[in-house]
Structure formats: structure tokens, C-alpha cells
Design goal:
The chain has 463 residues and is an alpha/beta fold. It contains 14 helices and 18 strands. The structure holds iron/sulfur cluster.
Length: 463
């Protein structure tokens, strides 16, 4: 149904709200909390911004391209104040937190600014309390199990934020300044949230934070990540538990034990490495050299032989020479990672790298990004081909985007949204089921497989 201003009709009872969620998985969780707040306040969430009286843009303000996308989206949504039903435009998230002073002056069309920790304050806006809200202090809030939340990904898969903020001082990164110091959630609160999610049908939980390996170090009772993961692994009905954003430290023997002991803790390691050369790691203030990276990977592979490894790198950081970049390529060739993201360095104010002068030419940086991605594509192809003929455990996500007669799924080595998918070409299954399937074909990142019945035979072909 069209909205109030452009058809002259207004439903006196139900008010409508539209959300745009930009940025990372952590931001998505924040959006899901605001959706929960909207539901609890009796708002109807609508897909078309033209129909909404309130529009919320949850922004990312981490690096240049993300900031541009956020600003473009705000301007696009502001247009619905004239062309749609929009009465109030709300900008939330990292961009608002970081640049509220500037944005408030330059964007009078924005009615309220909520920071990266102000999700619950959306209530005040929905209650129509009038005055323009500005961002709060990021240290004031950490997500709690009792916060309302509506899942947007799939009914059977959720991100779970185990901490906010970050205590590291990586020179290129503006996050600690935006999101504040690390605040871990107590173990029992995370357990309570995941129990609630499982009761609602979630079978896959993906733990996220800025620095997951440092979980608990800021709490008085100093729970370890291993204790948290073990407690979560014991939740009945939680089939897959995956850890994201582990800083390159040697995993404790206790954590390796948890990986080995609990079948539902996936041997999937997501460890952003950023670079490999000593000079670059020093300049990035990562607190370790290249040798540490080789050691950590070797130890992990020794402890978890079937491990799937995802990482990300930054190319074009100030001072990066051809020799530094060659060292990065050497690491990628040696390690044969399963999944790699390659980001272009973004020169950010309020960061130590942002004060550096020895910038790398943009064309050179882009060429390095292309070269590294091409190198990784060859490796990914080889690793995908090695899966052909193997029987894997696959989570069925639902009808395929390619065709109605196919299903989309992911094997446990594929995290949602970032690692590709498995197209299930034969058989039937419900979204959220975990089934076995035999891989029949491989592309660079996606796979094709035949579902097996629970008895282990190939399923009936779909007509
Ligand atoms: S670990 Fe480093 S890169 Fe990651 S959020 Fe913290 S400061 Fe930023």
C-alpha cells in the first residue's frame, strides 16, 4: 500500500518504518535490534521507502567508500520527504557517531542522529518525543539478551555480537575511536541470547565482535573465549557455531580443545591478517611480525587438520613497497587460504596511518589488489576442485536465486554472505535443515552438489 503523502491516505493505527542497513555483520545486528524496537512499538516495517513515515539509515563510517555509500544513501532517502510519506529521517551507526557535528550542520533534512550504541533510543523517536536526538556515548551500551531483535538474514542463521569496541591500536583503523573501548558481554547473557535464538529456529550462530580473541579480557571475572564457546556449544539444538574476527594470536590449548571436543564448533577460522611483511605490520602497529603469522597458521593446521581459513588483507598502506607486496603474495601462495578478502587502504583522519606521508599511488594499489585477487582465485579454484566427489554437511538456506527447482545451501566451510554457496541440484529439503550432499561440480567460489537422503542415498531428482 502506498504511503500517506502521495495517496492522501493514512492508516490511523499503524505507522510505517523503513530501514536501510549498510556495512558489516555487526551493524546488521544493530539494525536487527532497531527492527525489534519498531516491532515492539507497533510499527509496520515496509520494504518500499516511499511508504514509510520514518526512514532509518544505519550507516557505516569505517573507510572512504563506505562513507560515500552512506552519504549517497542518506541523500537518496531524504528525497522521500518530498516524494513519499517520509516525515522523519533518522541516521544511525558509525558515520553518525563519527561525524555528527559536521552532518548535523550540512544535512538539515536529517531529523535525528543515533550513534553506534543508541539502538534502543529509537524508541524515543517512535514515541514522537519531539526534539532532535544526537548521538550518545558509545561506552554507554552493550547489547543484552533481553533487547528486542528481529532476524533479517534467515530464520535459521544469526550473528551474535559477543563484545563491543576494541582495545587495540592498529594504525589504519578508526573503529576504536568510533565504537570505544572493548566491552564484553557476560557469558550467561550470550548463552541466554543464543538459547532464545535456538528456540526460535536458529541452528547456526556466527559469533562476531571487533576482536573476538580478546573476548572477556575486560570483564572482572575474565572469562575466556574458550569458556564462552564451550558454554554455547552445549546448547541443545545449536548445530553450527562459527567464530569470526580472531586477531592473529596463537589459539590457547583450551580453545583448540573446544574446537576438537564439540562437533558443533566448526573448524572454521576467520583471522584478519592484514599483511605479511615485518615493515608493514610494524607500520600498521599490529604488535607482531610476519613470523607470527606463519607460526599461528602452522600450529592451527597441526591442531585442526580439516580447518577452513578465511582472512583479509589491506594493500596500498603508506610505505608499502613492491618487496612488501611480494612478501604478502608469498604468504598467500604458501598458506593456500580458503577464503580471502583484499581491501584497498583508505587514508582516514583520526588514525595514525592518516598522518603518514609516504602514500602509495592509487593505480599501484589497485593493481596490487587485482594481482592478489587473481592469485587467490587460482588457489580457490584448486581448493574447490578438491571438494568434487566429497560428501559434506550442508545447511539448506532455501530456494535458489538461480532457479526455482534448485536449492541454495552452504557447507560448514562457507560463512553466510562472504564465502559463496552450494547449489543443490537434486533433491528436496526445508530451509534450516542440515543434510549431507555430494559435490558434483566446482566453480571458483560456488559448488554444485546432490542432496543425500537421511539414509545416505541420492535424493529423488526434482521434476
Ligand atoms: S583489531 Fe585493529 S583493525 Fe580490528 S577493530 Fe581493533 S583496531 Fe581496528
Amino acid at each position: 500500500m502506498a504511503g500517506a503523502k502521495h495517496n492522501g491516505y493514512r492508516n490511523a493505527v499503524t505507522r510505517r518504518i523503513h530501514f536501510v542497513s549498510l556495512g558489516c555483520a555487526k551493524n546488521r545486528v544493530d539494525t536487527e535490534i532497531m527492527l525489534g524496537v519498531s516491532d515492539a512499538s507497533g510499527f509496520e516495517v515496509v520494504a518500499d521507502p516511499a511508504d514509510a513515515e520514518i526512514i532509518v539509515v544505519n550507516t557505516c563510517g569505517f573507510i572512504g567508500p563506505a562513507k560515500e555509500e552512506s552519504v549517497d544513501t542518506i541523500l537518496e532517502m531524504a528525497h522521500y520527504k518530498d516524494a513519499g510519506a517520509c516525515e522523519r529521517l533518522v541516521v544511525s551507526g558509525c558515520l553518525a557517531q563519527r561525524y555528527v557535528g559536521q552532518l548535523a550542520g550540512e544535512m538539515p533534512e536529517v531529523d535525528h542522529f543515533l550513534g553506534s550504541s543508541d539502538m534502543l533510543r529509537l524508541r524515543e523517536i517512535l514515541d514522537d518525543r519531539g526534539e532532535r536526538l544526537m548521538v550518545g556515548n558509545p561506552a554507554d551500551y552493550t547489547i543484552r539478551a533481553t533487547d528486542p531483535r528481529r532476524l533479517t538474514q534467515r530464520a535459521h542463521s544469526a550473528y551474535v555480537k559477543i563484545a563491543e569496541g576494541c582495545n587495540r591500536t592498529c594504525s589504519f583503523c578508526a573503529i576504536p575511536g568510533i565504537r570505544g573501548k572493548q566491552r564484553s558481554r557476560p557469558v550467561d547473557d550470550v548463552v541466554r541470547e543464543v538459547e532464545g535464538l535456538v528456540a526460535r529456529g536458529v541452528v547456526e550462530a556466527n559469533l562476531v565482535s571487533q576482536d573476538t580473541i580478546a573476548y572477556g579480557r575486560d570483564l572482572d571475572d575474565r572469562p575466556t573465549l574458550a569458556e564462552l564457546v564451550a558454554a554455547l556449544a552445549r546448547i541443545d539444538g545449536l548445530r553450527w557455531l562459527r567464530l569470526h574476527y580472531l586477531y592473529p594470536e596463537t589459539l590457547s590449548a583450551e580453545l583448540v580443545d573446544v574446537f576438537r571436543t564439540h562437533d558443533n564448533v566448526l573448524s572454521y577460522v576467520d583471522m584478519p591478517l592484514q599483511h605479511a611483511s615485518d615493515a608493514m605490520l610494524r607500520s600498521m602497529r599490529r604488535g607482531h611480525g610476519g613470523r607470527r603469522i606463519y607460526d599461528v597458521i602452522e600450529r592451527l593446521r597441526g591442531a585442526l587438520p580439516d580447518m577452513v581459513f578465511r582472512t583479509t588483507f589491506i594493500v596500498g598502506h603508506p610505505g608499502e613497497t613492491d618487496a612488501d607486496f611480494d612478501e604478502l603474495c608469498d604468504l598467500v601462495r604458501w598458506a593456500e587460504f580458503d577464503h580471502v578478502g583484499v581491501f584497498l587502504y583508505s587514508h582516514e583522519e583520526d588514525t595514525h596511518s592518516g598522518t603518514m606521508r609516504d602514500l602509495v599511488d592509487g593505480d599501484v594499489a589497485r593493481a596490487r589488489q587485482r594481482k592478489l585477487m587473481t592469485l587467490q582465485r587460482t588457489i580457490a579454484r584448486k581448493r574447490s576442485n578438491a571438494l568434487v566427489g566429497r560428501e559434506l554437511e550442508v545447511l539448506v538456506d532455501g530456494p535458489s536465486e538461480e532457479s526455482d527447482i534448485l536449492l541454495d545451501g552452504r557447507w560448514w566451510g562457507q560463512a553466510p554472505e562472504v564465502d559463496g554457496k552450494i547449489i543443490l541440484a537434486n533433491g528436496t529439503a526445508r530451509p534450516g535443515e542440515i543434510r549431507r550432499a555430494v559435490v558434483t561440480q566446482a566453480a571458483d567460489y560456488d559448488l554444485v552438489a546432490d542432496l543425500l537422503t537421511p539414509e545416505g542415498v541420492r535424493d529423488v531428482p526434482v521434476e
